[in-house]
Amino acid sequence: MADRRAEIVRAALAFLREEGAQGLSQVEVAKRAGMRQGHLTYYFPRKADLVAAVARELQQEMHRELMALVAREQPKNAREAAAAVLTAHIADDERSRALLGLTIESERDPEAHDVLIEVVEQGRPLIAALLGPKGDEVAIDLVTAAIWGLELQQLFRRRNRAEVRAVVERLLDWIDGPKAHRTAPKKARKGRRSP
């Protein structure tokens, strides 16, 4: 029984990654999972139940991927780890599309909203760890907002990985404080607006 439930959640997450929230329905997910809608509704009676399960699965998947990335990178300093993790996170268009889809669904459904808030809260300790000593509540809030904003930008700007890394480096410079701002690239100081 758990396998069928997991199949349904994977199918719904795949739909969100590829299509976004528009068109997400139990009918479409049942088709993707290769089952009748009645079978899907046995496991997820309401669309909200399905969206909540997908949000939880996405959060767990993000956590596993980010922890694996940190372990694989094994950088010598925290800043390098933060830059690598944030770049990978922001550059993942499919994950960003799924997260945006869940955000849109959360506007329609209070339960999905609560799960999305839970996802954000569960990500806070990871952001705090990435920020190290500068990881106070204000910095965590700002970095969380910046990450979500950069993910949304990535969906329509389509920056390559090096460009994403440059934006992440500027974000980390900003977090490091005023001294880092003075070392901003010349283009940014000449009035060119940074993203």
Structural summary, described in words:
By secondary structure, the protein is an all-alpha fold. It has a domain at 51-186: Tetracycline Repressor, domain 2 (Orthogonal Bundle). Helices cover 81% and strands 0% of the residues. It has 11 helices and no strands. Helix 4 (47-73) packs antiparallel against helix 5 (78-91) and helix 5 (78-91) crosses helix 8.
**Silhouette:** elongated
State the CATH architecture of the domain at 51-186: Orthogonal Bundle
What CATH calls the topology of the domain at 51-186 is Tetracycline Repressor, domain 2
Task: Give the topology string: H per helix, E per strand.
Answer: HHHHHHHHHHH
Average pLDDT confidence is 79
- The helix content is over 70%
- Strand count: 0
* Helical/strand content category: mainly alpha
Number of helices: 11
Largest sheet: none
Radius of gyration: 19 Å
Sequence stretches where pLDDT stays below 50 over 5 or more residues:
180-195
Task: Kindly report how far apart the N and C termini lie.
Answer: 46 Å
CATH class of the domain at 51-186: Mainly Alpha
Percentage of residues in strands: under 5%
Strand and helix layout:
Layout: H1 2-19, H2 26-33, H3 37-43, H4 47-73, H5 78-91, H6 93-108, H7 110-131, H8 137-157, H9 161-176, H10 178-182, H11 186-189
